[in-house]
Structures are given as C-alpha cells and as structure tokens.
Amino acid sequence: MVFRLVLGCGTVCRQVTERLSEHDGDRLLAITDDESVVETLRDESVPARSADPADPDAIANVDPPDVIFVGSDRTDTNRAALEAARERFPEASIVAYLGGNATAADRDRFDALADAVVDPSSVMADRVLDGAASASAEAAIELREHLAGIDGRLAVLAHDNPDPDAIASAVALVAVAESVGVDADACYFGEISHQENRAMVNLLGLNLRNLDRDQPISEYAAFALVDHSRPGVNDQLPSDLHVDIVIDHHPPRGPVPGEFVDLRQGAGATSTVLTEYIERFDLDFDSAIATALLYGIRVDTNDFTREVSPADFRAASRLWPHVDTSLLRQIEQPSLEGDTLETIARAIKNRVQRESVAVASVGRISDRDALPQAADQLLAMEGVDTTLVFGFNDEMVYLSARSRAADVDLGETLRDAFDRIGSAGGHADMAGAQLEIGILGSADDEEEVESIVSVVEEVITNRFFEAIETRPGVPVGAYTQTSEWLFTQRGEPEDGESA
C-alpha cells in the first residue's frame, strides 16, 4: 500500500487529488488551509485536514508518506511546505508545483529539495498537451492571416447580456486584433445587469460598446463572434450577416458560418481559448484582461469543478502572475441589490417541490440576472438537487435551471420541455430558456394578464417536471395545444446557460 500526502490543494492540485483518490487500496491524505476544499474533498470521500500546509506542525504527527505532492497555487506557500516536508520526511519522493510567481531563487530551491518540479511555464507543459498545442499553434497562424486580411474596423460581438466569459473573450480578441494593426471594438446588445458582471467591467475599466438593435452596423467592415457561434441567435445581428471569425466553446446547434471558426468544445470556457491566442501571438498580458480572462474561466467552470479540461488549468496558471488579485476579490464579492434579494425570497416562498426537484415562479422581474442567483440559492436547500426558476419581463419568460444530480442533463431536459415553444439549451448542470408569450400583449386588463400568467406558470412547471420524469430524450407531449396557443414566437436562451 502506497501512502500519498498532498500539501496544499490549489487549482492544479484538485485534479491530481481526484486522480490519486482513484487508486484502490492506497492511502491518501490532503492538508490545506482552505476549509471549503476540505469539505468538498471529504464529501468525495477523500481524507482531508484543515491546516496550513506550510506549517511544520501540520505534518508533525503524520506517518511517513511514500510520495508527497506540494500543490498550493502560491509559490511562497509551496516553498515553505516543501522545506518542511523535506526536513520531516527525508526519504519521501516529493513532487512540487512551482506556482505562478517563482523567482530564480525559488526555482533553485525547488530543484534542490524536490524530486520533480511541475513548472507551469516550462516546455514540459507544452509537451504534456502536445497534440492540443500543435492544433492551437496552427489555429493562431490561421487567425493571424484572417485578421491581416481585414480592411476596416472589426466588431467583436459577445452574446446578448454578456457573462464574464463572453466579456473577457471579446476584449481579449480586440487586443489580439489590434496587435496586428486591426482597429476593433468589443460590442454587445442588451444589458450587463448582473452585479458581478458590472463590477468586472467597471473595476477593470474594460472598454465595451453597447449596441442598439436599430443602430446601423455598416461602419464595421468585419464581424467576429465570441462565446456564441451564430448571428441572430442570442445576439441581435441579422441572421444572414457575413461573419469573419467565430471563437466559442459551446457545441453548435446548427450550421456555423464564418471564414475562421474555432469551436473548442473540450475547453471549459472561451476565455481559455483566448488565453492561448494571446500566448501564441506572443503578447504581454495586460493585467485587466488577464484578470477578466481568469474570472471568465472560473465562472464558466464553476471554479474548476464543472466541465473543466487540462487546458483550463494551464490557462489559469499562465494568467495568474498577471492577475490583480485585490480587484478580483472585489469583483467576486459585490453587494446584492434589493431587487435580487426579493427575487431570491420569492423563489424560496413560491417553490413547488417534487422529491429532489424544485420549481419556482418569481412573477414579474426587472433583472433577469437575478434568476440564476435564485436557482443557485434553491439548489443550496437541503434535499434539493435540481432547480428551475422563471420570471416574466414584458412578453418574455426567462428560465434558469441548475442541477447537481448525476442522472440529469439540464441542457437536454430544457430542450425536451421547451424547444417546441421557445428556445432552450445549456450544459448538463446549468441551462436556460426564453419563451415569448405572444398573447400577453393583447390582454385588456391586469386581471386578464394575471390569469394568463397563472396558466403559463402551470404549463412551465408541469412541462419541466414531465421532462425530468421522462428523461433521457423522451419527447414531452403534455400541454402542447395550450403551449402553442400561449407561446407564439421564439426567443433565444441566456448564454452561459445555452449552447
């Protein structure tokens, strides 16, 4: 039996720990000062202790391990942990992660004490991902050629009401375009209403242009789409628009136009792809853009726990030395506005629960970004593993769903339930939909409106429950006539929750 000791558990180390825990019969212990990580590991049946991995007292009473992995995100923490571990366990084999802020002295110390050093900036990292690296190098050459051929100004379009991944990807592609002499604007339609998203834009001083649907776009000679892949689908561009560049990580739900198309469905975020392009174009990482890209990756991968890939870890490691951590903390902890708190409260109060599935209508909403926050809050309730929260704005119904159930694919579930009466899509654990209520605008008085809303609430709730109960892939047939009468036009799904 092999005893493996993990000291510190940062972004890279989490995946290593999960792999180590799969060795049946072997012994594993993780020591980290992040209590949330300790709880997560224990939930996954991985033995873990809450302690400072750099404190010699933390390992004073630990049995001698065969292998030690030092894996905090911080170079100084890893160096101190490495020194303590080598002194306490001189016979153990030690693999140490260098971290993102290593000096020459740090590198010398790691080389002297560790049997193997994992360096995020070394050539070895490229070798590990050799196939992907070669593909990304070829894509960078092709992207440079397409950018160089643009004669005029480039519009880089995020999807409507953009999330952090879309915002970061747009400003990063603008920087890449400008590096080859192409003038470009990061653009979007709709609103940036989520508190964290607004904080990201304002605190980092990101330059974005908010387009109006009626505003002519003829001033642009070329168009790029990031974090979505089809014009007119989750943006307000003409559906027949000639698209020059498409960079996305969502699986497409139809033909993808574009002279240059890079769809990295294996990546957890489009920001990961743009990080690679900045590297391939040999550009310096601007602190604001690096911070935005890292935040985009963290949000789309739910802090490296959802649909994450080795490329996401590598991108995060590359970005970390250039990130403004103080601003990142401010972005991640904005104050909740009153309307958002009220929406969350209504979701909790109005929820309809069947076994572990909870559905809630929050009625009229002014901020659609409050819906995913409400869905997250319901998911945190005891006995709930799948949630759907929806609300009404003008003649639209917006839906946001979350799940941690292993046997639920929310993207497919929402498509089964609502694609015939609206537009839906997303990931297995996070999805959304938009439905247009054509009849609502013709209602004569408030009483009639409330009656229609009540019927719509019942239709949405029952269709979702039926889609959950008949998974996987069984078409939903109930309420079809009522649905087709109420929902007469197709909307588009919320991105970050859509394909």
From TrEMBL:
Annotated ranges, domain RCK N-terminal: 5-97
Cited InterPro entries: DDH_dom, DHH_sf, DHHA1_dom, NAD(P)-bd_dom_sf, Oligoribo/pAp-PDE_c-di-AMP_PDE, RCK_N
GO biological process: potassium ion transport
A GO MF term: nucleic acid binding
SUPFAM superfamilies reported for this sequence: DHH phosphoesterases, NAD(P)-binding Rossmann-fold domains
Domain annotation DDH: ranges: 155-297
Record-annotated DHHA1 domain positions: 356-461
Protein name, as recorded: Phosphoesterase RecJ domain protein
Organism listed in the record: Natrinema versiforme JCM 10478
